[in-house]
Amino acid sequence: MRAIHITTLRKMLKAGDPIDIKLWTKSGEIQEWNNCVPLRYDFYKGTQRFKFLDSGQIRLTRIVCIFKINGLEVYL
Fold it and tell me: Is the pTM for the entire model greater than 0.85?
């Protein structure tokens, strides 16, 4: 299994385990977030908060911008 559907991604995020993700930013840059934990999901905005375990920093991204999680590609 090399690819997962976005609904499976949401289930993986809901579990709350540390993950590694790759995503597109608003400016089109590709970022890799390693060892982060999903915190709060906003259904109406489609956004998810993540906390980096190494630095304690909290960031926000849209779910549809995530294209890879733990080495698995995400498709819509």
Answer: yes
